[in-house]
């Protein structure tokens, strides 16, 4: 797992939970390496919200989850999340290419494809069992003197093969429907369909050679030529086919890519991609991030200060400066830029966690109380940040508030999917709260929680 600095990577193996503790994260598979970053998440919200509104899904609070994986992929496994690999964000050269991917995935959610596929799988399991029983019956009849002909194993394999073909055909149909829905959503929001077409065309071209020898009935996605012909037909009818992304949105997209490369690549790789001769804002951003990550703090702070001079109202430059100072062991100096970032960022939960951490480590008068306020606000707005509960526990411990410290520790363990530790800590917290108090109720929710997998020990 990538161990990047906290702002970009509260890289947590997420599997969070229910009731009065983190509600949405129980749906994120345990152990999935997730990247958290304020700037990138805000950009992806801006990408997806118009699409979700057009699909009638704006009220469902669907979240985009960034996976620490360098391959190009995006997928849905429920109706509450769209998962996207960091590699997709890094490889997509324009906002519209990424927005097109999100439009396609939204098509799966809007079409109810996941629940429908579960029903198909359940039906397939039933059909497979019946087919196997019939096959066994045929073999038994053959043993009694009947004639099943040829290899008796064919009687068992044939139903499974037919069911497999049926399921794959059904999934190909869903992919085609998601393509059409994606085009519809893009057109409804006045956005180009070209990015979506270009992205899928790229992968169709890459898979074309392999597809020439493939059985079209054993593919989960439509065959490349067929899919692209159908998609091209509807995509090019959009009146917004040639509409470009705005320069402002393109810059934000380029900054996102630079940030990911700066955090995830080695310094020499970053310098090859963004050489010193490149004086663009994204290149300077990537180099500054890479510099502070690899220990040249003096140069890094100078580069970050130069970025701030260029865009003094960019909250994420102040966030990066605070993060760099904090990780350099200078928490007191990190407080001011993080406060500045917090005052400007639209969704600042992750920044509040960084500020809370800096305040606790700074030892300043009144810092612990300020940290508790920031961390409580962060967990209220975004319950999927285990580190926030860790720092809350530390802050409460400093104040001698053992009940809330135990509860926060239980919530941290719970947020990481460590059910066993969470229950133990919650049980201890319950003994410190008055029965029926809000803290007692929260601890009781955790202590009595049963994970989705009854055999899970954590």
Keywords:
about 450 residues, Serine Threonine Protein Phosphatase 5, Tetratricopeptide repeat, five-stranded mixed β-sheet, disordered C terminus
Main sheet record: 5 strands, mixed
Proportion of residues in helical segments: 55-70%
Strand order, main sheet: write it out.
1-2-3-5-4
Would you tell me the structural class of the helices and strands?
Answer: mainly alpha
What fraction of the residues are assigned to beta strands by DSSP? under 5%
- How many structural units, i.e. domains? 3
CATH class annotation of the largest domain? Mainly Alpha
CATH superfamily of the largest domain: Tetratricopeptide repeat domain
The overall pLDDT average reads 82
User: What sequence of helices (H) and strands (E) makes up the elements?
Assistant: EEHEEEHHHHHHHHHHHHHHHHHH
CATH architecture of the largest domain: Alpha Horseshoe
Number of distinct helices: 19
**Gyration radius, in Å:** 26 Å
CATH topology of the largest domain: Serine Threonine Protein Phosphatase 5, Tetratricopeptide repeat
Distance between the termini: 20 Å
Tell me the total number of β-strands: 5
Q: Which spans have pLDDT < 50 for at least 5 consecutive residues? A: 1-26, 123-149, 152-158, 208-222, 454-458
| Envelope shape | globular
Could you walk me through the main structural features you see in this protein, from its secondary elements to its overall organization?
The protein is mainly α. The chain has 3 domains: 81 residues, Zincin-like; 123 residues, no CATH class; 200 residues, Tetratricopeptide repeat domain (Serine Threonine Protein Phosphatase 5, Tetratricopeptide repeat, Alpha Horseshoe), CATH 1.25.40. It contains 19 helices and 5 strands. Helix 11 runs antiparallel to helix 12, helix 15 packs antiparallel against helix 16 and helix 18 runs antiparallel to helix 19. The longest helix has 36 residues. The protein is globular and about 65 Å long.
């Amino acid at each position: 797992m990538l161990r990047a600095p906290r702002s970009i990577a509260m890289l947590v193996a997420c599997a969070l939970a229910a009731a009065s503790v983190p509600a949405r994260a129980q749906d994120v598979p345990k152990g999935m390496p997730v990247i958290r970053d304020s700037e990138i998440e805000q950009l992806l919200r801006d990408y997806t919200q118009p699409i979700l509104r057009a699909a009638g899904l704006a009220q469902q609070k669907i979240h985009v989850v960034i996976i620490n994986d360098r391959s190009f992929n995006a997928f849905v496994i429920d109706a509450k999340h769209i998962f996207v690999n960091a590699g997709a964000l890094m490889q997509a050269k324009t906002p519209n290419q990424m927005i097109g991917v999100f439009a396609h995935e939204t098509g799966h959610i809007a079409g109810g494809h996941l629940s429908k596929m579960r029903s198909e799988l359940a039906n397939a399991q039933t059909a497979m069992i019946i087919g196997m029983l019939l096959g066994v019956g045929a073999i038994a009849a053959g043993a009694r003197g009947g004639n099943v002909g040829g290899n008796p194993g064919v009687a068992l394999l044939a139903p499974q093969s037919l069911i497999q073909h049926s399921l794959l055909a059904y999934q190909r149909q869903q992919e085609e429907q998601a393509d059409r829905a994606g085009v519809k959503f893009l057109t409804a929001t006045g956005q180009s369909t070209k990015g979506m077409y270009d992205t899928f065309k790229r992968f169709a071209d890459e898979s074309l050679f392999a597809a020439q020898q493939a059985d079209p009935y054993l593919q989960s996605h439509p065959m490349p030529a067929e899919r692209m012909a159908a998609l091209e037909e509807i995509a090019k009818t959009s009146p917004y086919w040639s509409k470009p992304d705005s320069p402002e949105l393109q810059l934000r997209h380029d900054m996102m890519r630079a940030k990911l490369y700066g955090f995830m690549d080695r310094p020499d790789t970053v310098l090859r991609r963004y050489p010193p001769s490149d004086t663009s804002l994204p290149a300077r951003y990537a180099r500054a991030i890479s510099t502070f990550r690899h220990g040249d703090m003096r140069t890094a702070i100078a580069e970050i200060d130069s970025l701030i001079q260029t865009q003094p109202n960019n909250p994420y430059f102040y966030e990066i400066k605070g993060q760099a100072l904090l990780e350099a062991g200078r928490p007191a100096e990190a407080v001011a830029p993080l406060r500045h970032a917090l005052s400007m960022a639209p969704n600042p939960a992750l920044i509040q966690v960084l500020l809370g951490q800096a305040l606790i480590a700074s030892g300043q008068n009144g810092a612990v109380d300020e940290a508790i306020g920031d961390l409580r606000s962060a967990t209220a707005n975004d319950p999927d940040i285990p580190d926030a509960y860790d720092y809350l526990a530390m802050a409460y411990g400093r104040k001698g508030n053992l009940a809330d410290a135990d509860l926060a520790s239980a919530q941290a363990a719970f947020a990481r999917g460590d059910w066993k530790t969470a229950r133990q800590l919650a049980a201890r917290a319950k003994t410190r709260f008055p029965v029926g108090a809000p803290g007692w109720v929260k601890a009781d929710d955790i202590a009595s929680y049963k994970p989705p997998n009854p055999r899970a020990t954590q």
